[in-house]
Request: fold
Amino acid sequence: MRVGVIRFPGSNCDRDVYHALKLVGAEPEYIWWDLEDLSYLDAVIIPGGFSYGDYLRAGAIAAITPVMDGVRELVKEEKPVLGICNGAQILAEVGLVPGVFTVNQYPKFNCKWTKLKVKTTRTPFTSLYKRDEIIKMPIAHAEGRYYTNNIQELWDNDQVVLQFYSENPNGSIDGITGVCDKSGLVCAVMPHPERASEAILGSDDGIKFFKGIIEYINRG
Amino acid sequence: MVLTDEEVKFIKKELGREPNPLEYGMLDVMFSEHCSYKSSRPILQLFPTEGEKVIIGPGDDAGVVEVTPELALAVGIESHNHPSAIEPYGGAGTGIGGILRDILSMGAMPIALLDSLHFGYLEDQKSRYLFENVVKGISDYGNRVGVPTVAGEVEFDQNFKFNPLVNVMCVGLVKRNKIKRATAPNPGEVFLLMGGRTSRDGIHGVTFASEELTSSSEIEDRPAVQIGDPFTKKMVLEASLEIMDKVEVSGAKDLGGGGLTCCISEIVAKCDNGAIVELEKIPLREEGMTPYEIMLSESQERMLFVIKPENIEKAMRICEKYELPAAIIGKVTDDKRMKVIKNGEVIADLPAKLLADPPVIIREAKRPTYPQKSIKVEHPPLKEALLKVLSSPNIVTKEWVYRQYDHEVQIRTVVKPGDDAAVLRIDEENGIALTVDSNSIHTKLNPYHGGAGSVAEAIRNVVSMGAWPLCIVDCLNFGNPEKPTVFWEFKECVKGMAEAARTFKTPVISGNVSFYNETEGVTVNPSPVVGVVGSLKLDNIKTMDFKEENDKIIIVGSTLGELGGSEYYKWVHGLLTGDPPLVRFKDELKAAKSIHNIIDKFGDGITAIHDCSTGGLGVALAEMSIKSGLGAKISTAKIPNNCKNEHQLLFSESHGRYIITVKEEIADNIIADIKVPSSVIGSVGGDSFQIDDLKVPVKKLQETYHGVIEKYM
Reply:
């Protein structure tokens, strides 16, 4: 069960995601940005950080790397793809998920533990939660305010994955902070499940994101 | 140039000739206070620096201590005051860059940043500008390199208005067998310079940091401020760790203050060797740079490794992977001289030791006069006083600051910012508690006890988390050392700090001195910033918030009528006079040991611990309530004290005190095990906070404590 963890220059949650994947018994491996053929992988995670220093715009430069061509191919092969934080920004930038993540309403970096509602369980990453389950995970971003022109369509297609609960810390539309594509296999979330994967860190609510990948692959 | 007449005379005598202009420039930076520590060195020898856990003490880029049989910590602290006063965003960012490189030079992965920030009051527009941009500089830089900022302190006071203090501490983790040093032991080995290109920024950064600032500094000295690039730094960090892992490296050192001149002369002088530097090999960012500019440039994001010639290709391949400029720029020689060569011609030739070890200066120290006047104040009603102190910007939550820092990356942060200290896990069982603390008002009023108190308070911070102090680092921010009264304060302060460190048998393993913190004739209050790292078992972690109704509240240590220098006097009465609290070394140690022992003995029976310091007992108790949302009912009758009134009791900042909460049934057993005066003073519960007749809803405390800084930003 090989799960790729993509590394761009400036990625900084790569080791943390790798660690979380190890915890659930996956075989993670680091993928450098210049690799194009990812077909041997069972799933891919794009971790958080500041790929290319967030220069130009978060995710803008990472979006035009060879490895993202590989990710597009993987999507065609119906393999799960998860983008976390900067990874979510990159997936939105390349158009694999709808909408954009833009500058927070209070335009500063915000690192904070948040309560979230799981809005759909049809993605591999959320399949082990209950719909509307409240979970705790931290956010850490300056450009995480989700926006889309087609908000109704998003709800109609069951593409909202996570929603802020009780407080909307960045001004996202409808408090949305995780979305997926129509298939549910490509998922982009701003909160960090890998930072909430062990009770000692404050919560292990996030570990099911990674367990879900294993389940999905095992089901074939 | 800052070389004095005597120094020029000394140099000419050593050389037997007049230095050429390039050599003058090189000597000038190396003789600067910043690089040479020429004023402070004789005094810093007072610090205890040895201990069984110390692997590398002061003198290297950072200190290294053993934390488990397999793992060691590299710890360092640095000031970036002058650059931050001129260009707050870039100045603060490069401050982080510099300390990260120091930690990296020891072969360690940086795992935590802490910062101690001091500004003028936020009513002042310039202070707001400096505060906002320093925090943004730290946020943008620290977050991008993926090192969590886990703790820190912010102080506001009038005297920092023109001269803010920005001190950054960093902790790195390294396997014991992977530790590197800044050495070049083998002649014939070569220097690999990698990372950022050398440019015209930061030239004479160290000499400008070794003079007072003036109102024109903002314009004139801007070119002396380095330009940081966190993205390149992240690549330098990854590439450096990979080089040190895969290539045999006999020495590593970062390029900071003093640039190539400082880096290379120090690394070879330490091993009694020499160096040849070939100027045309150095990757430059711009054309037409003179040898003087190249040798003095403080361009950021550069690292130097000493490697064997046969390993050049292997190391270069790693740099290529990360797309970093890299070059072999010279080699280690055995002639003890530092030679700079351009197109085969020697253009500078100086003894490496002359550059790396300038003679010390014995400065005159003279006690300033302290105004002796008796203090008479009209105490406001207790409730009003408590709420006022609680709303001081020095007491209120610093959430506005630490929300901007990624304090979670690297998934080690067990106790997050906002407690007495942060706790990070370093393996499955073991953790470290980290804090950085200072008390500039106490130090202004009494440098010896202010210095000792800063160490004592930082130690209490980590003890409160369930840890025992492992090592100390310090950043000493003072005015112009050429003024005898400033130098006296410095000397007294170090004496006091050293005594506190000796009391706890905790070595000072690294540090930094920042003099000349004067602008427009205003000298900053002497500010000894103390970083302490403690080690603990993850099972023993304690936090400050009240946990459960009916838990008993115990005060450990005596409260004495020591209101001088208190936040109460300052914020409520505008008073900055009086005698600050004295450190009673033996009691301080006894109290800490008692806390440590009862945690071991009673484990989960101890439910919360908080140290009692700035703001006094009233504030400490209120904070425990605010953080938990739980109320408390407290009676002052049993507090061990010698106070004349309730205001002294609640706001005195006497040292050596902790507040703990414990399970009701074991309260008496615990009191019996505490070796300093202690007593049960109340219990947790309800939704109001009550001390004798004073009664405030917890919600009201929370409102007072939150949103104060936000109002200005």
Q: What stands out?
A: The longest strand of chain B covers residues 109-119. The mean pLDDT of chain B is 95. The CA atoms of residues 476 and 528 of chain B lie 5 Å apart.
